[in-house]
Amino acid sequence: MHPYRTHTCNELRAANAGETVRVAGWVFRKRDHGGILFIDLRDHYGLTQVVVHPSRPFFDEVSRIKLESVLIFTGVVTLREPSTINPNLPTGEIEVVADECFIESAAETTPLYIPDETDPAEEQRLTYRYLDLRRERVHKNIVLRSKLISFLRKAMEAHGFTEYQTPILTCSSPEGARDYLVPSRVHHGKFYALPQAPQLFKQLLMVAGFDRYFQIAPCFRDEDSRADRSPGEFYQLDIEMSFATQDDVFAVIEDVLSKAFAEFAPKGWVIDQAPWRRIPYREAMLTYGSDKPDLRNPLKIIDVTEIFRNSGFGAFAKAIASGCIVRALPVPGIKNKPRSFFDRLEPWAKEALGAKGLAYLVWDADRIKGPIQKFLTAEELNALAQAGDLKDGDAIFFCCDKPDKAPTMMGALRRKMGEDLGLIEKNAYRFCWITDFPFFETDPETGAVCFSHNPFSMPQGGMDALLNKNPLDILAYQYDVVCNGIELSSGAVRNHRPEIMYKAFEIAGYGPEVVEEKFSCLLNAFRFGAPPHAGVAPGVDRMVMLLAGEENIREVIAFPMNQRAEDLMMHAPSEVTEKQLRELHISVRPHGGQPKPANA
Question: Cα separation of 333 and 322, whole Å?
């Protein structure tokens, strides 16, 4: 017999009755029923109930053992009495009657009560993360993550992709988020950086002729934490394709992600199949007030600027004359909401959105009610009703502000209304592509033309567009994957032609010497024959978060940092020794003080 176990704690069934077996695991629960001890023994796979009779010589010792101790039991599999069968447990028809017991590891009282699925304080959970990971929900999340990654690898290989590894120590990037810097011991005063993404390396692999690359890639960014972003590091399904169009990338991603979500989604959930809806950026901002729209929400925003331009509502008319726009959100069937529902929205809009106010109208039978109704003519009210397809019981909300603010304000109201009114579709994953991002935009402080997003994307229309179009009208071959309001991925068709790159940077105010200094490696590679190529990089952490139904990304990462980018379990970041600093020729400047010499 194996020294530790013959079966896992999720393996024994009624067919094993009468067999002598050995099981091992952690004491999950312990109950004393009339002098007989019942122990739920837990391992990675599940639970088995072990029965210890008082006649056994180890009964007293096991009675005193604390939860989460590791025990090994040898005994006979016995069918449970019909009244004690647990139909919710795969092993619920049997129990193991213990003949022998070995205490492999006696536990002290744990700071977390593992059977309780109520989340303790985050600081406690992360300090004792190895205990937190024993809890069923978190444990399942990490297993789901592993299975998803395995599935993604196989799916990419089925599409003819090969996995390659790219460097972890690289150069600091002049663009994007803050780098994590790593000092060089050999090269005094110089630093490596951890990669924010394998972007340049995967493009160079295309130049090197590898055609179809993928990697489950670690990425490192020194940025603040939020619910869908972990500080420090994250993982993405990094993809690049040679001789590929935007449509080629879409076809691969739609197939791989649709199948992945179908494989791991909760039972009964609806998953959008290919082709996914494609929404141009400007349409997304107009209709949903966001470039990450949640398509489970049926509400849509409309533009009613022209209706108010010459209206009697002076606050809007004057603002429009000064360059503002008016966005409106029709909301069906809420006339029965109390006045307090509407009254609470204006202070919310002022506090949460920085809005000057929030006007509204309600269609109630043959009357139209609302604080701005008296300022509008019958024709204007009728135009609003037609624009918003408003009927009895419907309401419409208005926001008037600058063109760069009004859409996002209305987008936030759309989300709030969808949640507060229970309009969000249940049990569905709704995917879309956001396409046709502007290549350039105007810097709000200087008024100069600058890059809107990714300067290395191919502009739609190529060199001809850069030479002959208004820069603000040029679109890029850039695209995002969005699911349920979560951005899963950004990608683009790359600019592989140096002359187009020089011109694009020239429009943004950078001379060729700047481009050559900052991006010489990529430029030099392109001069030796570069194929057209495109890529994308869906976030693994966010996919698992969606599939697990979690609202915070830390719930699907085995050892996450807290919101302050601290590892409470390993006490990182931490101070290092003076010897280590001297080897690196580094001195540490105390906060607000003078540098401390490395050789002090």
Answer: 34
